[in-house]
Every structure is written in structure tokens, then in C-alpha cells.
UniProtKB/TrEMBL annotation:
<keyword id="KW-0479">Metal-binding</keyword>
<dbReference type="GO" id="GO:0016740">
    <property type="term" value="F:transferase activity"/>
</dbReference>
<keyword id="KW-0175">Coiled coil</keyword>
<keyword id="KW-0408">Iron</keyword>
<keyword id="KW-0067">ATP-binding</keyword>
<dbReference type="InterPro" id="IPR012089">
    <property type="entry name" value="tRNA_Cyd_32_2_STrfase"/>
</dbReference>
<keyword id="KW-0820">tRNA-binding</keyword>
<dbReference type="Pfam" id="PF01171">
    <property type="entry name" value="ATP_bind_3"/>
</dbReference>
<keyword id="KW-0547">Nucleotide-binding</keyword>
<keyword id="KW-0460">Magnesium</keyword>
<dbReference type="InterPro" id="IPR014729">
    <property type="entry name" value="Rossmann-like_a/b/a_fold"/>
</dbReference>
<keyword id="KW-0819">tRNA processing</keyword>
<protein>
    <submittedName>
        <fullName>tRNA 2-thiocytidine(32) synthetase TtcA</fullName>
        <ecNumber>2.8.1.-</ecNumber>
    </submittedName>
</protein>
<keyword id="KW-0411">Iron-sulfur</keyword>
<feature type="coiled-coil region">
    <location>
        <begin position="210"/>
        <end position="237"/>
    </location>
</feature>
<dbReference type="InterPro" id="IPR035107">
    <property type="entry name" value="tRNA_thiolation_TtcA_Ctu1"/>
</dbReference>
<feature type="domain" description="tRNA(Ile)-lysidine/2-thiocytidine synthase N-terminal">
    <location>
        <begin position="37"/>
        <end position="201"/>
    </location>
</feature>
Length: 275
């Protein structure tokens, strides 16, 4: 057993996060007997935490499944893949590092004004899907946590005009890979604390916009932080809302056939406006 895993057995926060992941696995059927899961590890706090939690689950679960860590090197100078490799190997986990020329591709192809992050993420996602199949995996685990879900919900409402967040389990467009997000119930605050307390060797992705991009997401984060002062349970409530959808009380006409609306009545469940 790795030294870190040994220490984590007594760690309260690890137990809490383990409970969060266990609940997500149970609620959404994220992992099944015989699965081989590619765990996307960027060298950031979220994916390191996810890797440790999935390895713990693998050792304890009554079902048999495998994990393999995968890292994409996008070619940004200074990206310390050696640190990631060392950490993963210390945990006794198989690791695949894929070197790409994404940096060159983005520098060449990006049109002025287009978002650096979205091109980079799209390229990475394509390689991750390909690698998942190539490594004989049927699932790909991504390290998005509950704050990512809530912020994405707000971003889509505020800027895209769409009522959607992320899925905890979803068949990817390639029709082969099932994408899973085991940290859906873990909060970013817990992950940050866990990562600091256990000195996870976080590395910077070293892209040209690292830390400076995703301004709109930061705005959502700040907005939530402000609102949290008045409504302490706001994030819990928003996450719960994602699993408590009332299609008849929305305006998407495509849903009409599936969820026919009845005439408006007092029993509609709509909160009444206060006079
Ligand atoms: N270079 C990469 N190699 C492998 N997986 C990646 C890479 N970049 C991102 N991912 C995966 O996609 C998820 C979401 O990516 P994003 O860039 O939003 O990272 P993040 O929220 O900063 O998370 P992390 O703390 O894990 O870097 C990551 O948690 C990870 O699972």
C-alpha cells in the first residue's frame, strides 16, 4: 500500500469524499463489474483527488474493475509530466502519457477572438476518447465536481439560453465511450482542502492563458460566493434542482409530447407570487 493511501485511511475528509463518490456511483451506476476505466489525470487538484478515490473504491468495492490513469501532454513548455508520472506510479496505478502537438495546432489554426480554452479542451477530449478505446477501456472518468455542475448550469442560462449543466454518466458522441463524473457530489472547497492537506503535487498546465482565462466562470463563482452569504445552502439547493426537474413547468415545446401539460391549477406546484 502506498504511504499516502495508508495515511488516508484515518483521514476524515477522505472518508467524506469517499462517501460522496460512493453515492454518485450508486445513484448513477457509474461503475459496473468488469469495467476498465480510463481516469483522466491533468495534474490538477480535482483529477488527482478523483484518482485516489477511484483507486480506493477499486480496492474496497465488492465488484471487480480496473483503472488506468491517462494524461494528455498538449505540448505547453514547462508542463511537468514527470511529476504526474511519479505520483501515479507511487500509487501503484498504471499510467499512460500521450504527447500531442496541440499547442502548435492551436497556435496555427486559432482565429483571432476565438476562445483558446474551448479549442484546447475540444482537442484534448478527442484524444481522451480515442485513448480510452485504444487502452481497452469502456469508461472515461473526468474530474468535474459539484461546483463545476452548478457554474455550468448558470453559464448556460446566462450566456447560452439553455437549461443544462453536465451529466454524471453519458454515452459520448463516438457511441463507444461512457463518460463518468464521479466527483459530482464533491465540493470544490473540500477538494482544495484535501489537496492542500495531503500536499498533492499539483502542476500547472502551462498553457499561455493559464489562470487568466474562463472569466465568465469566475464571475459565476463570485456570484455564488456573494449569494452564499445570504443563502448558505444555495449550492446544495442548485445541485438538488438538477435532480428534481419538472418538465411540465418549462417552456420547451419539444417536451410537450412526452410531458403533456394540463390546464393550470392550484396543484401545479408553482410557487405563488407574494402580493
Ligand atoms: N491534460 C489533461 N490530461 C488528462 N485529463 C485532463 C487533462 N486536462 C483536463 N483533463 C480532464 O478533464 C477534467 C476537467 O478539465 P479542466 O481543464 O476543467 O480541469 P480542472 O477543473 O482544472 O481540473 P483538474 O484540477 O483535474 O485539472 C479534469 O479534471 C481531468 O479529468
Amino acid at each position: 500500500m502506498s504511504e499516502l493511501r495508508n495515511e488516508l485511511q484515518k483521514n476524515e475528509l477522505f472518508r467524506k469524499l469517499r462517501h460522496n463518490v460512493g453515492k454518485a456511483v450508486a445513484d448513477f451506476g457509474l461503475i459496473e463489474e468488469g469495467d476498465r476505466v480510463a481516469v483522466a489525470v491533468s495534474g490538477g487538484k480535482d483529477s488527482y483527488t478523483m484518482l485516489l478515490l477511484l483507486e480506493e473504491l477499486r480496492r474496497r468495492a465488492p465488484i471487480k474493475f480496473d483503472i488506468v490513469a491517462v494524461t494528455i501532454d498538449s505540448g505547453y513548455r514547462g508542463f511537468r509530466t514527470d511529476i504526474i508520472e511519479k505520483f501515479v506510479s507511487e500509487q501503484g496505478i498504471e499510467h499512460h502519457l500521450e504527447k500531442t502537438t496541440h499547442f502548435d495546432i492551436i497556435s496555427e489554426k486559432r482565429r483571432p477572438g476565438s476562445s483558446y480554452c474551448s479549442i484546447c479542451a475540444r482537442l484534448k477530449r478527442g484524444v481522451l476518447y480515442g485513448l480510452t478505446s485504444q487502452l481497452g477501456c469502456n469508461k472515461l472518468a473526468l474530474g468535474h465536481h459539484s461546483d463545476d455542475f452548478i457554474e455550468t448550469l448558470l453559464l448556460n442560462q446566462f450566456f447560452v439560453g439553455s437549461l443544462k449543466a453536465m451529466s454524471a454518466r453519458m454515452l459520448a458522441d463516438n457511441g463507444e465511450t461512457t463518460v463518468i463524473r464521479p466527483l459530482v457530489y464533491a465540493t470544490e472547497a473540500d477538494i482544495i482542502r484535501f489537496s492542500h492537506e495531503n500536499r498533492l503535487p499539483v502542476v500547472c498546465c502551462c498553457c499561455p492563458v493559464c489562470g487568466k482565462a474562463d472569466i465568465q466562470r469566475k464571475r459565476m463563482k463570485n456570484l455564488l460566493k456573494e449569494l452564499e452569504k445570504e443563502i448558505p445552502h444555495i449550492k446544495n439547493s442548485m445541485l438538488k434542482a438538477l435532480s428534481n426537474v419538472h418538465p411540465r413547468h418549462l417552456l420547451d415545446t419539444r417536451l410537450a409530447a412526452e410531458f403533456p401539460t394540463t390546464t393550470c391549477s392550484d396543484a401545479s406546484g408553482t410557487p405563488r407570487k407574494q402580493d
